[in-house]
Design brief:
- The protein has about 400 residues and is an alpha/beta fold.
- The chain has two domains: about 5-20 and about 110-225 and about 270-385, Rossmann fold; about 25-105, no CATH class.
- It is built from 15 helices and 15 strands.
- The protein has helices at about 10-15, 25-35, 35-40, 50-55, 70-85, 90-105, 155-165, 185-195, 275-285, 300-310, 335-345, 345-350, 360-365, 370-375, 390-405; strands at about 5-10, 115-120, 135-140, 145-155, 175-180, 195-200, 205-210, 215-225, 225-230, 245, 255-260, 290, 320-325, 355, 380-385.
- The strands form three sheets. The protein has a seven-stranded parallel β-sheet with strand order 6-8-5-1-12-13-14.
- Strand 12, helix 10 (about 300-310) and strand 13 (about 320-325) form a beta-alpha-beta unit.
- Helix 5 (about 70-85) runs antiparallel to helix 6 (about 90-105) and helix 7 (about 155-165) crosses helix 8.
- The longest helix is centred in the N-terminal third of the chain and has 16 residues, at about 90-105.
- The chain starts with a strand and ends with a helix.
């Protein structure tokens, strides 16, 4: 067991920066894609119209009961009940799964670039993991007026964040890093791939079709609700191994997706059940737990039970960290996410081990002193900057105005 074992629990808020929709706006994204002819041209089959038609069909339900049909958890929960009573279970369920996967395969935006500077490294002292990145040599200001030779890398924010969480900037301590996620998307996997790391899903003897040429190591990514690149053959027999593909576009059209749609039914998807026990075991021997972008909705009581089971056996927990914009602990109006944890966790754990960061994870991770302090690591990172095209254009406009001020 690693002395410094970090368990990261990542929710939908973590993937939002990559253009992945949340529960509240998922149906809006489905609508946007349904009228985008360029995206629709890539579809092997129209999975979106049946979902939108079902939403329209159920509109009469909202006339009688208080239900938000634009919230996919409520809409799909209604569909789950309907499929049991109307005998259309397989077709409706398959359309919903593929609609989810196709939507996530076509995000609404790209992640912001992140430029991070690392010092002090001589040309012949680049650590192995940094050799996977496109680095350029630069002078890094450490303490004025001192300048040290360092390196700068520019990738998207997830490459930086996953490298930081995976401990790739610090080899000074023995550590183990595990990712547990409720997300179906491949945001984590794609970022880790940039570091030469393959995501180890810990499925039981899977059939792995991924191209892993050049990979140097594996890291555990436990996906409790399944994934857009996991399937079972159409003629699946009980106990058959899950197939893993590079992405959703590589999934054979006759395969069944292995993912659990967000509904009131929390039964694990086929082949996923053993992962819950594995996740509880990781929580039980974690030195540090960091929850990012998971708002602990009241319907997800299964998460609280997972935490309760894992924490009940944990005798070594050092810190429990929650990062969420709605996790501010400050009175008189603490955030909803903070309140949920405050009501769930024991007072002694809250008092001695718990730390809530009421900011987005991208804002929290852009300050090296905060992240290295949270994770108690020597990162060597002295500067992090995020930008968008709008930010860069604003900066260029500001520079032009400074050169040609108005009279």
């Amino acid at each position: 067991m690693a002395i410094n074992k970090n368990v990261y629990i990542l929710g939908a808020g973590f993937s939002a920066e990559a253009g992945m929709p949340l529960v509240s706006n998922f149906l809006d994204r489905i609508r946007d894609i349904s009228v985008d002819l360029d995206i629709q041209g890539k579809a092997r089959k129209d999975y979106l119209s049946p979902v939108l038609n079902y939403r329209k069909e159920m509109s009469c339900c909202a006339d009688k009961v208080d239900i938000d049909l634009d919230n996919i958890e409520q809409l799909f929960s209604l569909a789950a009940i309907d499929s049991l009573t109307e005998g259309r279970h397989k077709t409706l369920a398959d359309n919903i799964k593929h609609a989810i996967a196709f939507t996530l395969a076509n995000p609404s935006a790209k992640p912001r670039p992140a430029t991070f500077s690392i010092h002090p490294l001589a040309v012949d002292e680049i650590p192995e993991h940094l050799s996977y990145l496109d680095l350029k040599q630069e002078e890094v200001e450490v303490k004025r007026p001192n300048m040290r030779l360092g390196w700068e890398a520019k990738h998207d924010v997830y490459v930086y964040a996953l490298g930081l969480m995976a401990g790739l900037f610090d080899s000074s301590v023995e550590q183990e890093n595990v990712f547990i996620t409720f997300n179906y998307d491949l945001v984590i996997e794609e970022a880790l791939k940039q570091w030469g790391l393959v995501s180890d899903y810990r499925l039981i003897e899977p059939t792995d079709h991924r191209s892993t040429i050049g990979a140097r190591d594996h890291i555990e990514v436990i996906k409790l609700h399944g994934s857009v690149n996991w399937t079972l053959p159409a003629d699946n027999k009980s106990g058959q191994a899950v197939h893993i593909f590079d992405d959703y576009d590589s999934v054979p059209p006759d395969h069944q997706l292995v993912l659990q749609p967000p509904t009131w039914r929390k039964d694990p998807a086929p082949g996923v059940a053993p992962l819950w026990k594995l996740a509880a075991n990781h929580i039980s021997d974690a030195w540090r737990i960091c929850v990012i972008g998971y708002s602990t909705p009241p319907t997800d009581t299964h998460f609280e039970y997972l935490l309760a089971l894992g924490l009940s056996r944990n005798e070594r927990l050092h810190r429990f960290i929650v990062i969420d914009p709605d996790a501010s602990p400050h009175d008189p109006d603490p955030g909803r996410v903070y309140t949920r944890y405050r009501d769930f966790l024991n007072y002694h754990l809250l008092d001695r081990r718990f730390e809530a960061i009421g900011h987005s994870w991208t804002d929290s991770f852009r300050i090296p002193e905060i992240t290295s302090g949270l994770l108690e690591r020597r990162t060597g990172i002295v500067k992090v900057g995020y930008s968008t095209d709008e930010d860069e254009e604003s900066e260029r406009r500001r520079q032009r105005l400074s050169k040609h001020p108005k009279d």
